[in-house]
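User: what does the whole thing look like in 3D?
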Amino acid sequence: MSPLSDKLILSDTDLDAQIRHFTGRLDNYPRSERRDILRALHWSRKLHEGQQRASGEPYIIHPLRTAEILIDFRMDPATIKGALLHDVLEDTEVDRSELVEKFGEDVATLVDGVTKIDDMDVGKSARKAASLRKMVWAMVEDLRVIFIKLADKRHNMNTLQYITEDERRLRIARECLEIYAPMAGKLGMSSLKSELEDLSLKYLKPETYAQIKEHIALKKAERGHYLEKIQGNLLQAANQSRMRIEVATRAKHFYSIYRKMKDKGKDLEEIYDLLGVRVLCDTPEACYVMLGVVHRLWVPLEGRFKDYIASPKGNGYQSLHTTVLTEGGRPLEIQIRSRTMHETAEFGIAAHWAYKEGKSPDQIHPRQVAVVKQLQTLRDEGHDDDAGEFLDAIKRDVLRDSIIVYTPKGDPIELPEGSTAIDLAYSIHSEIGEHCLGAKANGAIIPLTRPLENTQTVQILTSPNAHPHVNWLKHVRSARARGKIRAWLNSHDANVLIDRNIVARQKPSVPQEEPSPPPETNESSSSKLETQVLDQEKVGITIGEERNMMIKISQCCAPVPGDRIIGYVSRGRGIVVHKENCPNLKGIEDFDERRIQVDWETASSRTTQRFRIHSRYTHDLFSEIEAAIRKFHGHLISGSLDETERGDLEGFFTVEMESRDDFKKISKSIRAIPTVLSISKVQNFQNRYYG
Ligand code: MN
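Assistant: Here's the predicted 3D structure for the full assembly of 691 residues, as structure tokens:
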């Protein structure tokens, strides 16, 4: 981390220069509004007089920058004034009535709204949830409150290095990554989202951040050369088809590169698509023509084409995405969209509040915005009764990436990414969820547990005799489905108990491959347990009848989701969950009689494997490999092929499959490709980020 002590010293003349610069940026607003905005600035400056930021700067710099960010979004004058005054209720002597008197009800309500959303970095999940609840209320009332809050966050993240307590700095960065960045994304403000993510990464993973930064700087020259060529090819081809386009190239933002490394198990060196190319066309029709032009220039990678024009994302995002193999088999993602779509992609929902002179902004009601609707549903369904659960539900249901699927009638339904037909069934109606039996996606039967894909049309098949199964918990993503399944199982299935993300089953199945430890004769175990033998039957009955039985996580080995775990029915303390290899288990005298099978309810049944390929040079190796993987129902997550110095091909692939055994079949079938010289497994990249 850079030295924290360097404070910024700003003289009065510097401040005057900053204010002049700010004034210059107000040109798009009519003169009367300009004057009023400056009146807000000068009053705010006076009120914050003598206060300093942690950076040592005069406090007014903070509201000034916050307002500038919103000017970039062309927000209406009330929002700009609200931003300039956003901290006066909290940090100065002014009260709401004075604010109303000077700037009117509208501005006062905005400032009041921002003040109520206190920062969540206080740690306690109860406080966080309380604050989130207020944020939800504020959003439903007026989305401009959130725009100001996001801009406020953006400047605070920019000056985060001046917070000297390590813990607090990390907490703020984490909260930004978990709540505010995804919130910006959900509102469609993609550039703000990327900035918040990159700033979070800088503090949460300083080494990785520095590494990516250095890597990108190193490759700059090579990249420029390559992109110039691509750009030239695109412009020339468009010209021949008499199309008017603009081409923009960019390095992807750091956080998205980091996610690729983490999700796909790649090293920085192996990530070829650090770059993105964006083509802007005049009309939606022209986008499809341009797609044809691109696919004639380079071979598209199968399975990578996405049509967000026909099926926009929940936040309104529209674009065509395709990945093509350019020279040397180097994959490149190309996005094609119209200029209007581009504006929506950059500004998102905020575009509806964008200030247009002479016209009142075409504000849409917050309740028309998908993310607000989802938040409202969670609140209406009472998920905010339990603080921790509400926070989880928001992170899982609302802030996560989502897909849209259609009912047979054509109604779009938005679900968290990774959702299955079970989630869909519950989102239609809990009765349908409780009786779903199977599903059809685009007409073909699919397992209830298979993740749905964006834009599929899905029909749920039900039967009066069907009912929820404990395994469903492993395959649902939405808080709603999870909550309903848990509730159903706890009241209908006497053999299971679900608590704290752990499922305990009556089934006495003691894993056979593991010989039970020899009877313990040592006296060292601290608590003198009674020697009464409890049979499995009784354990089961205890669970079945005692509904108030609790599941506790043992403090000695503190298992976390993903660890192999085992439960122990204690006397009077419910079920205690240990890691399977916890040494303390040996000290428990009647452990064998009292052990009980427990699982993490969210454990995924799917598994990934990375492998390396070495092959003689051939043109279609990529698609052959993809076909081999598909044949055994695997899913290619990532893949890259590169020409070696000797003219061979070398590549790394990551495949997701139903079980480890499938990999044997896949690798056998790849080995059968005539040019392939070798295939070998590569250790999965594992790096828990947080949580
Ligand atoms: Mn602030």
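In plain terms: The first strand starts at residue 246 and ends at 251. DSSP finds 24 helices and 22 strands in the chain.
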